[in-house]
């Protein structure tokens, strides 16, 4: 009864504000299994994201009860004469409003403010196929819950993000990367099959063999072609423990040389390679006490001055080796042998040993600490760049030692290389045109603490300077988790893949009603799909 009332209310608001001309009784007959809500708290949650930089209010929020709910809603939007926009929202961890939509409907794939997530509630519905080594999960499932479920069978996904409180559909719409990507490829390279609700409201199953065009379009597709309701994810036997090592460098080319050597071992037997390769830049001593660096202290204090970084910039290589109790005897020798080939500063080896799940969930522990200090729910003007290998030294000179200067940085600056051959060129994601490219991630928080260099304005301006520097120097970077606002910028981002991206859009979301928060296409208000998307 309450649901019915809420629903009618929601429909009234939709009709009034977006001129939705679908017959209300027809929409009522959609009879969603979940809940269509206009609760101010739901609206507020869906208006915001982790970035806390942009804000856009939807008309209503759908808490879906099933994939069919999503299909019914998108179909109603597609068929309505005025049209209205629909955006899937995973865990709302975008930076620039990518999951928001003004006056449309946001679908809370991971539960939003209600806490009771469809995915979590239906945890038992995650189907783990032990023999086939894959798991079927709801599109709004958080990776942490996928891990918990698969571990019950001694299995785990192969490719990760650093942080696990992200939704499967959200990371698959971007790429999904971490230190395993050099070896296994990004998360989009570790998916066998998807169920997708297209912009026409059709629920389709797709894979390499079946509806392959949709499959490749959706992976890294920024939510433009459909809403992922189910994903079949590749699994491997879960390791039990992790040897986690950090070593320091003061010479950038030595640092990247070692990183590139380590990722070149991707095809080799597991005894000859590490399982995870990342790294970060330490531009000021303050960073040592930063959210990712609790590693060094208090038992492992590091003084930058003591390791002789005259320019004030240090580089930390972060590597791990997985092992099981059964191979526990040989792990020391294996790691030692692998480390012999590296050229870090002697005496700067920091080692930790921990259960596999604790390693994967490491950023969440940092989150809890930051939350306790009120430092989590602050603006995050993050910038993620894919940089071609041949120009990475220019970023060191121009950005780490240049634009960033000696400014205090409130957040990590990650840097690690990946192998392009692990990225399927048929997917929608774009990467630089070189066999090896780096992620450079400036994951900084804006703080209102009186320090000019930590303010949102300063950091935003600095991001602009970094992008202009790359442009002026002819460094062909690609933004990861891209944020652009004009057609020219988006066409430039996609380069020679733009035509394909555009064709796929016209085929799968001809009215351009999905994920408008990405600001790539404008929705068409007329009932025909021939209206110009600009
Ligand atoms: C603390 C933190 C750490 C992070 N670490 C990493 C990392 O290590 N590696 C990495 O690759 N990324 C990382 N990210 C970025 C993350 O992958 C993106 O924010 C991504 O969007 C996932 O977040 P989400 O599930 O909250 O998606 P949302 O922000 O909710 O959505 C992102 C986009 O995907 C669309 N979308 C959401 N769900 C679906 C769906 N089911 N089907 C189709 N489209 C959908 C939305 O409309 C939107 O356009 C991190 C982000 C944060 C905040
Ligand atoms: C860094 O190492 C390279 C080669 O190993 C060397 O040529 C270069 O001079 C070093 N740079 C600095 C600043 O010491
Ligand atoms: C921040 O870095 C810039 C660029 O090097 C420098 O000009 C400026 O003085 C720095 N500001 C502070 C407060 O350190």
From TrEMBL:
Documented EC number(s): 1.5.99.12
Record family assignment: Belongs to the oxygen-dependent FAD-linked oxidoreductase family.
Signal peptide positions on this chain: 1-21
Name of this protein: cytokinin dehydrogenase
Domain FAD-binding PCMH-type: 54-238
GO process terms (BP): cytokinin metabolic process
Alphabetical UniProt keywords: FAD, Flavoprotein, Glycoprotein, Oxidoreductase, Signal
Alphabetical list of Pfam families matching this protein: Cytokin-bind, FAD_binding_4
GO MF assignments: cytokinin dehydrogenase activity; FAD binding
PANTHER family: CYTOKININ DEHYDROGENASE 5, GULONOLACTONE OXIDASE
PROSITE patterns given in the database record: FAD_PCMH, OX2_COVAL_FAD
Record-linked InterPro entries: Cytok_DH_C_sf, Cytokinin_DH_FAD/cytokin-bd, FAD-bd_PCMH, FAD-bd_PCMH-like_sf, FAD-bd_PCMH_sub1, FAD-bd_PCMH_sub2, FAD-linked_Oxase-like_C, FAD-linked_Oxidoreductases_BP
Needed co-factor(s): FAD
SUPFAM superfamilies given in the database record: FAD-binding/transporter-associated domain-like (SSF56176), FAD-linked oxidases, C-terminal domain (SSF55103)
Catalysis: reaction(s): N(6)-dimethylallyladenine + A + H2O = 3-methyl-2-butenal + adenine + AH2
């Amino acid at each position: 009864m309450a649901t019915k009332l809420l629903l009618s209310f929601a429909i009234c608001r939709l009709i009034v504000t977006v001129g939705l001309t679908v017959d209300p009784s027809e929409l009522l007959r959609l009879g969603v299994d979940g809940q269509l809500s206009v609760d101010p708290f739901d609206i507020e949650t869906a208006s915001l994201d982790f970035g806390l930089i942009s804000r856009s209010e939807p008309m209503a929020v759908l808490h879906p009860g099933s994939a069919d709910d999503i299909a019914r809603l998108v179909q109603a939007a597609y068929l309505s004469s005025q049209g209205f926009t629909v955006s899937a929202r995973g865990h709302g961890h975008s930076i620039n409003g990518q999951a928001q939509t003004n006056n449309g409907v946001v679908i809370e794939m991971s539960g939003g403010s209600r806490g009771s997530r469809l995915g979590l509630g239906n945890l038992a519905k995650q189907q783990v196929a032990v023999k086939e080594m894959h798991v079927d999960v709801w599109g709004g499932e958080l990776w942490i819950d996928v891990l918990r479920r698969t571990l019950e069978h001694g299995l785990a996904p192969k490719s990760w993000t650093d942080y696990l409180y992200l939704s499967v559909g959200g990371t698959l719409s971007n790429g999904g990367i971490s230190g395993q990507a050099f070896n296994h490829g990004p998360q989009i390279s570790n998916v066998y099959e998807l169920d997708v609700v297209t912009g026409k409201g059709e629920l389709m199953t797709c894979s390499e063999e079946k509806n392959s065009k949709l499959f490749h379009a959706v992976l890294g597709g920024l939510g433009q072609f459909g809403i992922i309701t189910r994903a079949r994810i590749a699994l491997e036997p879960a390791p039990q423990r992790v040897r986690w090592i950090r070593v320091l460098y003061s010479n950038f080319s030595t640092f990247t040389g070692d990183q590139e050597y380590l990722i070149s071992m991707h095809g080799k037997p597991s005894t000859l390679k590490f399982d995870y390769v990342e790294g970060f830049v330490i531009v000021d001593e303050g960073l040592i006490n930063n959210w990712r660096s609790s590693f060094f202290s208090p038992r492992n204090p590091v003084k930058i001055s003591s390791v002789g970084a005259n320019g004030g910039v240090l580089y930390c290589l972060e590597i791990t080796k997985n092992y099981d109790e059964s191979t526990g005897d040989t792990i020391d020798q294996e790691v030692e042998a692998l480390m012999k080939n590296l050229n870090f500063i002697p005496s700067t080896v920091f080692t930790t040993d921990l259960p596999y799940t604790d390693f994967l969930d490491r950023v969440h522990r940092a989150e809890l600490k930051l939350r306790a200090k009120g430092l989590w729910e602050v603006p995050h003007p993050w910038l993620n760049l894919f940089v071609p290998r041949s120009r990475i030294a220019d970023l060191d000179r121009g950005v780490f030692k240049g634009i960033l200067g000696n400014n205090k940085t409130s957040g990590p600056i990650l840097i690690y290389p990946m192998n392009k051959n692990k990225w399927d060129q048929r997917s929608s994601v774009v990467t630089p045109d070189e066999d090896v490219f780096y992620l450079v991630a400036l994951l900084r928080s804006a703080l209102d603490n009186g320090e000019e260099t930590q303010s949102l304005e300063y950091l935003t301006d600095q991001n602009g300077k970094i992008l202009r520097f790359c442009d002026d120097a002819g460094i062909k970077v690609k933004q990861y988790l891209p944020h652009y606002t004009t057609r020219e910028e988006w066409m430039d981002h996609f380069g020679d893949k733009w035509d394909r991206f555009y064709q796929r859009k016209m085929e799968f979301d001809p009215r351009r009603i999905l994920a408008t928060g990405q600001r790539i296409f404008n929705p068409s208000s007329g009932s025909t799909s021939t209206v110009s998307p600009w």
